[in-house]
């Protein structure tokens, strides 16, 4: 399919109700309001067509950008392309999921995560924390920089409640991911989670809640899932 054909198909799949839901969560126009489940069904159409995926992201439509992230092969992405994607992402669904997921499975995941999470730009910082968290969830513990991750846990412990809104959310998620997927640092993450307690994040006119990190990690522990890596973080 061509870019025009995919965009037309997205327009047909969109609904006003889904669009209103995305807008309440912070989405920006243009968007059609296509459910993520329907976007996933289109991956087989776009997959392996790198140029089409790049064109979809460049369209500026949230639906097309999300589809691009589901379809692209992360290993083919250059630093310049991922920097461009991060800069064009205009709300958290794109920065924390689309861009972060692709970046985490790229060959330059750590380089980008380290750069982004210290950014003064809130959206870019959330992308950095989410990229690093996703990277941890799919990378064997022996390949992780445990000293660096412990330092980031300490940063979360001491600054999370004074950080910017969505950065608080992704910092909290980072603690959960370390506690759940990085066995050598799980106990430290549990200690950090207990100390930070509940994290307040403004989620607009939505029913979304910030997960309590300690409860989330303990639940994974009770299920015997600590340290079990994911096959992919792109979803």
Automatic annotation (TrEMBL):
It comes from the Bacteria. CDD domains: AlkD_like. This is DNA alkylation repair protein. InterPro entries: ARM-type_fold (IPR016024), DNA_alkylation (IPR014825). It comes from Paenibacillus alba. Gene3D superfamilies: 1.25.10.90.
């Amino acid at each position: 399919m061509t870019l025009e054909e995919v965009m037309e198909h997205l327009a047909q799949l969109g609904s006003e109700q889904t669009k209103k839901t995305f807008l309440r969560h912070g989405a920006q126009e243009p968007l059609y309001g296509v459910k993520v489940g329907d976007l996933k069904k289109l991956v087989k159409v776009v997959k392996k067509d790198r140029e089409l995926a790049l064109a979809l992201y460049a369209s500026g439509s949230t639906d097309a950008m999300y589809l691009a992230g589901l379809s692209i092969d992360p290993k083919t992405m250059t630093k310049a392309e991922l920097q461009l994607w991060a800069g064009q992402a205009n709300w958290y669904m794109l920065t924390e999921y689309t861009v972060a997921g692709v970046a985490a499975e790229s060959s330059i995941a750590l380089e980008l995560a380290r750069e982004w999470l210290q950014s003064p730009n809130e959206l870019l910082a959330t992308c950095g924390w989410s990229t690093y968290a996703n990277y941890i969830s799919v990378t064997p513990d022996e390949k992780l920089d445990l000293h660096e991750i412990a330092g980031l846990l300490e940063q979360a412990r001491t600054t999370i409640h004074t950080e910017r809104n969505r950065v608080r959310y992704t910092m909290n998620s980072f603690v959960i991911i370390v506690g759940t997927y990085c066995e050598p640092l799980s106990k430290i993450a549990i200690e950090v989670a207990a100390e930070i307690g509940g994290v307040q994040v403004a989620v607009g006119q939505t029913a979304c809640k910030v997960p309590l990190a300690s409860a989330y990690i303990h639940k994974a522990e009770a299920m015997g899932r600590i340290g079990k890596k994911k096959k992919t973080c792109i979803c």
